[in-house]
Amino acid sequence: MRISRVYCLALALVFLVADLQHADAGFDILDPNGKISIKWDVVEWTADGYRAIVTMYNQQLYRHIQAPGWIMGWTWSKKEVIWNIIGSETREQGDCSKWKSALPHCCKKTPEVIDLLPGVPYNQQTANCCRGGVLSSFMQDPATSVASYQIVVGNTGNTNTTIQLPKNFTLMTPGPGYTCSKAAVVPKTRFLSADGRRTTEAFMTWNITCSYTQQLANKAPTCCVSFSAFYNETIVPCPSCACDCPKNSNATLPIPLANGVDTNNQRCINRHDPHLPTTLNATKNNPLSTPQDMLFCTNDMCPIKIHWHIKLNYQEYWRVKITITNRDISRNYTLWNLVAQHPNFQNFTESFSFSYRPLNGYGPTATVNNSAIFWGVKFYNDMLMQAGPNGNVQSEILFRKDSSFTLNNGWGFPSHLLFNGDECAMPTADQYPTLPSSSSGLRVAMTTLVSMLVFSVAFLL
Ligand SMILES: *[C@@H]1O[C@H](CO)[C@@H](O)[C@H](O)[C@H]1NC(C)=O
Ligand SMILES: *[C@@H]1O[C@H](CO)[C@@H](O)[C@H](O)[C@H]1NC(C)=O
Ligand SMILES: *[C@@H]1O[C@H](CO)[C@@H](O)[C@H](O)[C@H]1NC(C)=O
Ligand SMILES: *[C@@H]1O[C@H](CO)[C@@H](O)[C@H](O)[C@H]1NC(C)=O
Ligand SMILES: *[C@@H]1O[C@H](CO)[C@@H](O)[C@H](O)[C@H]1NC(C)=O
Ligand SMILES: *[C@@H]1O[C@H](CO)[C@@H](O)[C@H](O)[C@H]1NC(C)=O
Ligand SMILES: *[C@@H]1O[C@H](CO)[C@@H](O)[C@H](O)[C@H]1NC(C)=O
Ligand SMILES: *[C@@H]1O[C@H](CO)[C@@H](O)[C@H](O)[C@H]1NC(C)=O
Ligand SMILES: *[C@@H]1O[C@H](CO)[C@@H](O)[C@H](O)[C@H]1NC(C)=O
């Protein structure tokens, strides 16, 4: 009895320390070097300015930019204009009335550049362009974690001493979340020719780094976690009002949306309403406006719920089933990802329906080796569909037991889960499903035995 109490205390301390670490360094303890860097390479002087290749690298391990995509903005230092852009466009041309013979692409002091949609004509494309502003996380697919376009800037100097660097860079996705550094001149980029036999170099290069803060992007969490285990029939639900509070769970349809604006601030509809719309008009009008989310009403009001079920306990392994449910009827999540932190990820064995990579030990300052990233299998479950019958993805995962394995004290539950890079609200530790008390210890042993048999049979088949 005393031992188990000491153990409890120790476990509580471990959790406390882990939480302090998180509070201290932010959630980015899992990705200390995560940032988006933007590089401008001036590759040609023109009559009144320069041509540059602008490249954006997503160096974040698990945070991506999903549709409707990124918006890159800045403020010109002088009276620059953009004569031409290939591989992207500006949202507004602005006032070009002082130009006569040739018309610039954009005359705004604060241009906002967006990506082109896939399928534009070949002569309007550049390498790494035209993905509708979607940028993969570095872990999911390094090849599509880069975006690039070409820009011809005029009405400015055309030597490296007269150029004024653009100021006040912003990166919207399309909402806020990122803060960007000042542009800084860095060593010139060297480009290698396709056959690798010759290098050319930029005339001048500058860099901007943008980093993400969840608090800047959302006031409230966007996902929550529920727990269950084979040894206890209780399902521990998401904390209530984890993301918001239900406003009117008896709403009647049709939903009073005018031009995509939820005038009654209703925000949720009843899942069992017979008149559920199959699509909403909300997101159709302006593809760059943040969609007005419309959820199925729940006690937590989170668009995303993650359920972690401890499913089976074998002799050497244990198995968890993860289900991610979308309760947002106005949004599909493409290229979704899930980051999970649990001590046993050091001895992780298999994920059956999700792609998987450990986050362990990336970068020189990585301080944790107990987390992993999961994402969908291409063309199978890489899109988490809008709420409804298909609005979930699931996989079972298998751990090889390490020496600290126990079913006690909620050890089998993760300490942190992040969906698309944002921390999810967890049930409090005192609510974890508990093991039946001593008399039924035999039952657990039996379950274990049965699980082992089932597992052996499954392996034989
Ligand atoms: C500008 O060009 C000169 C001559 O090529 C070079 O010496 C100088 O370092 C350059 N300055 C910058 C800021 O690139
Ligand atoms: C920088 O950009 C932001 C957003 O576009 C704007 O609110 C802010 O006033 C700008 N600051 C300067 C100094 O231009
Ligand atoms: C400039 O961008 C490159 C490309 O990603 C990056 O590796 C480098 O660290 C950046 N340099 C600075 C000084 O930010
Ligand atoms: C929803 O309707 C039920 C029964 O009609 C009622 O008991 C409940 O209070 C209503 N809830 C709200 C939030 O109006
Ligand atoms: C959606 O748009 C159609 C036609 O554009 C319109 O008839 C319908 O009322 C709209 N539905 C909602 C819920 O706004
Ligand atoms: C989600 O994707 C499906 C299949 O591509 C599509 O039919 C549906 O309209 C999409 N829903 C939204 C809200 O974009
Ligand atoms: C994982 O991290 C812990 C604590 O930092 C350390 O004791 C352990 O040796 C590491 N394990 C591996 C496999 O790197
Ligand atoms: C866990 O993994 C580490 C590194 O792969 C290995 O050295 C260790 O023996 C494993 N522990 C168990 C209990 O399998
Ligand atoms: C299941 O876990 C809950 C805590 O979430 C606990 O109150 C309950 O007693 C457990 N049930 C059994 C049968 O042990």
Helix proportion: 10-25%
Q: Compute the CA-based radius of gyration.
A: 26 Å
Low-confidence stretches: 1-27, 281-285, 439-446, 449-461
* Mean pLDDT metric: 82
CATH class of the largest domain: Mainly Beta
Shape: elongated
Number of strands: 30
Sheet/helix structural class? mainly beta
Bound molecules: 2-acetamido-2-deoxy-beta-D-glucopyranose
**Biggest pleated sheet:** 7 strands, antiparallel
Count of the domains: 2
The N- and C-terminal alpha carbons lie at a distance of 43 Å
Strand content: 25-35%
CATH topology name of the largest domain: Immunoglobulin-like
- The number of helical segments is 3
Mind telling me which CATH architecture of the largest domain this is?
A: Sandwich
Protein name: COBRA-like protein
Domain COBRA C-terminal: 222-433
GO biological process, one term: cellulose microfibril organization
Keywords: Glycoprotein, Signal
